[in-house]
Amino acid sequence: MNSVILVIASVLYLAFLFGVAYWAEKQSEKGKSLVTNPYIYSLSLAVYCTAWTYYGSVGRAVTNGIEFLAVFIGPTIMMPLWWIVLRKIIRICKVHRITSIADFISSRYGKNATLGVVVTLVCIGGILPYIAIQLKAISSSFLIVSRSSGDKIVDHLFWGDLPFYIAVALSVFTIIFGTRKIDSTERHEGMVTAIAAESIVKLMAFLITGIFVTYIVFDGFGDIFQKASLIPDLRKAFVFNNDGDFSSWFWHIFLSMAAVMFLPRQFQVAVVENVNEKHLNKAMWLFPLYMLLINIFVIPTALGGELLFANQSVNPDSYVLAIPLKFNQKLLTLLTYIGGFSAATSMIIVETIALSVMISNNLVMPVVLKSKKLQETFKGNLSNLVNNIRRTSIVLIILLAYLYYKTIAEHYSLVSIGMVSFTAVAQFTPAIIGGLFWKTGNRKGALIGLGVGTIIWFYTLVLPSLVGAGYFPQSIMDNGLWGFEILKPFSLFGLKGMDNISHGLFWSLLFNLGCYLYFSLTRNASSLEHNQAVIFVDIFEYSGQIENSSIWRGTAYLPDIQLLLSNFFGEKRSEKVLRLFAQKNKINLKNETADPRLVTYTEKLLAGVVGTASARIMISSISKEEKISTEEVINILKSSQELLSANKSLRKKSVELEKATSELKDANEILQRTDKLKDDFLTTVAHEIRTPLTSIRALSEIVFDNPDMEIEEREHFLGTVVKESDRLSRLINQVLDLEKYESGKQTLNIEEVDIQDIIKDSVDTLYQQAKEKGIKMVFMPDRFAPRFEADKDKLIQVVVNLLSNAIKFCEPQKGEITIVTHYVEGCIYTSIQDNGAGIDKKFQRLIFDKFFQAEDQTIKKPRGSGLGLAISKKIIELHNGQIWLESQVGRGSKFTFMISVV
Amino acid sequence: MKEQKLIVISILFLILFNFPMLAIFNNGGSINGIPTLYMYVFFVWTLFIGIIYNVLRKERNEKQRDE
Question: What dotted CATH number matches A3-427?
């Protein structure tokens, strides 16, 4: 294929990346952020799969069989533990605004600048070759494809060399989307989205190529394995051939478990760019699924390549490209090339951003900030300085990687360099894991462990490659350093039978961990280290409090703080930030001396920009600090926690109080209404009493004033006086009665009664009265009504009351009263029907109210106290029964009461 | 609870993916023409993804129910 087409394709692809990143940032500005999506997060994690996966796995599978898979099995096994380990790291980084792995380690061990430097150097030393092999992968894939069409490509350095231009383009991309914002806690949404897109591209490309090889060139998995099994050399790749293979399988798994978290690019996408801890849930199975998919066709492709190119000098690392080329599949070749290109570019972009942040925050800024002279030079312009340092380091890293590739990396296959890088970052394991779960781990332990581990790593894994490139004498490899057999880099201390990587990993980590534990246990930590240890290890307990409480003591002046912040964020923004924080925490900004919380907050803000160690340096330069012990720190955190819970319970109490108040208000209203009712009642009673009293008095006066009154007349008057007195006393008795019922003092005298007896007794009482008035009474009993428990006298009172009302309202001579008892489903219904005047519908419900007749004086006033029905109702209710009225004006009324027998 | 389940799964698969479990399938035989060792590794891998998916889904459902 023509190299021009390849160049155009590469440029178009890069343009596509720019487009995606730009679009994502625009979306985010519109508030439709794409990175809040767990799928984008999971896909961005696949930056783990580099060109090494893409091309190198196939090469590795040819020589070592299944062993290459260990690098993907390790992360798979690690994923469930991310919920415990990585979630904790994410939380810590969010609370402390930590933006790189160097910053994380330096912050944990007392915000120590030296540790930050060491970690950064290890990262640069370990990762630079790794970036270099990505460039190499781009370059060699380009050469393979373009040479196949007969283009004569000559390797030039710089101008005229495609990888150089790619490197330049990637630098531009990284600078644009990686350093736009100074505060690195603000995420690089464009970059992350572009990386996620690249992950899809490389997966698709690899799957399509794999399907082509497996199902079109060959006849499925079975066919390839069948054919390969006939060749003894290839059969060897089907199994682990010796015990050493199991051991290196294990060590590779172990190594990649560490690498998938601690590689700077992984830390960047998994921790720094994480928006929501819950995204881990999706990533936990999606990322392993991704790795499974991208590896399915690796072995068939490797075996297929071996079968197709037997005895030809084709590098196994290039089989992915060479097979489509052999079958003259131009489009597929181009697709495969782009897939590999995307794998390489995504790795370079993220790794470079991560490294540039480390270089600016942990290498350069501490130096600048410690030097008075340098600080003077950049005064008021620090944010630009930080950004420029990052931009410069991006260019430098990519340039150095390019040079490394041109000088050393040419001699090595892709995988070996990748593994060496893995081993370098694995050195962070004791310091990070120990730092997360073990409070005793201290700075000395971390520093010495890391130092010793790195030296052994260099000696066992890097030095041999330098010897191979001719920088050191071969004698070191053959006879050991200074001729000590025991120091041979590939069999240190006489350890043989392991592969180089496992060997180097074992020794370096053993000494690293040993030193970390020994010095942590034997040396004392400073108070700041102690404090950081507590905050890191117990992050889930305190993460809510750290933001708002001050774990700092000393004096600093507000103008200094303001100046410091405006140096980085500009005057407007820093003022706004300070005001918001002060408002939220009720801090008075008028005081000259700054509130400790404000100082802590400022330090955190600065840490987001220049790293923890640098922020520490700046804060100490403007303040007089006092030591604060770990106990105090814990107390401060605990007390703010208590304050928080006290606040919560206070709020709860006030809600309860509100509820009680409203209940009280309701009760008061009811009380007022009852009070009014009582008043009305009293008025009515007084009125009712006054009427008979007036007539008694008037009649008695007449009799008194006329001693010679006729005897008949006198008898008539006195008879009326007696009758009115009777009425008066009855009324008073009824009022007292009613009072008894209403206050609940009335008790029932329960005995077994028969409803027929009750009715007969009542009718007997009124028989004479009815007869006098010429009113007929009919009783229709229900013979099946059972006997039941009730107060006989009280029920007679009810029936008598209802009957006498009926008699009262019936016209003389025409009146007819029907009494019916009826037993249905455990209830006895007794109804008393008359053919009297009837009661208007609107009064039917009110009629049971006491003194109802008195309430509306305009209607025909019935005779009686007006309390009879009210008392009857109370009696029936006391028997758990009901009483009601059915009536029509002109057709008479029917009172019914129901009592449950059961 | 979720933490504990995840730790157990991790340990379980660390064992399934290593010696001596691997040695059982490292016999040079084949299933449908595909080497047993490859079959085993990819099978366990798929199983792992399924289990994690299920455990997390259950946890999420339980959490939603609790809420």
Answer: 1.20.1730.10
